[in-house]
Amino acid sequence: VHLEQSGGGQVQPGGSLRLSCAASGSIFRIGAMAWHRQAPGKQRELVASITSGGNTNYADSVKGRFTLSRDNAKNTVYLQMSSLKPEDTAVYYCYAYADFSAHWGQGTQVTVSS
């Protein structure tokens, strides 16, 4: 299973970005998918997760600002990030539980700065 991330970059505070993560390869079944992030000097933390049925869970710090969605036909998740703050700056990693194993994307930098 390969997770290909796209999106990210630099944006001013209050701006928006969208991250995408597409799973490919010989996949029998994908369960939950999620986005984690890791800021410099901090531990990796869960940002948002979504089950195969579409149930979502968000970190308190992003509730109301981030929206996670999923297209099961494309094995892709999308993280729409709005009202971005400097503290959202981090490397964002896609995660998928597929075929009884955990898989991670390569990471993408999100920088929120004026």
Please specify the SSE layout and strand pairing.
Layout lengths: L1 E6 L1 E3 L5 E8 L5 E9 L6 E6 L5 E3 L7 E6 L4 E6 L8 E9 L2 E4 L3 E5 L2
Parallel strand pairs: 2-11
Antiparallel strand pairs: 1-3, 3-8, 4-5, 4-9, 5-6, 7-8, 9-10, 9-11
Summarize the structure.
The protein has 114 residues and is mostly beta strands. It is built from no helices and 11 strands. The protein has strands at residues 2-7, 9-11, 17-24, 30-38, 45-50, 56-58, 66-71, 76-81, 90-98, 101-104, 108-112.
Would you mind describing this structure in some detail?
The chain is mainly β and 114 residues long. Helices cover 0% and strands 57% of the residues. The chain is globular. The protein is built from no helices and eleven strands. The protein starts with a strand and ends with a strand. β9 (90-98) and β10 (101-104) form a beta hairpin. The chain has strands spanning 2-7, 9-11, 17-24, 30-38, 45-50, 56-58, 66-71, 76-81, 90-98, 101-104, 108-112. The strands form two sheets. Strands 2, 4, 5, 6, 9, 10 and 11 form a seven-stranded mixed beta sheet that branches.
Structural class: mainly beta
Number of discrete helical segments: 0
By DSSP, the count of extended strands is 11
**Global morphology:** globular
N- and C-termini, Cα separation: 37 Å
Q: Sheet bearing the most strands, described?
A: 7 strands, mixed
Instruction: Write the H/E string, N to C.
Output: EEEEEEEEEEE
- Oligomeric nature of the chains: single chain
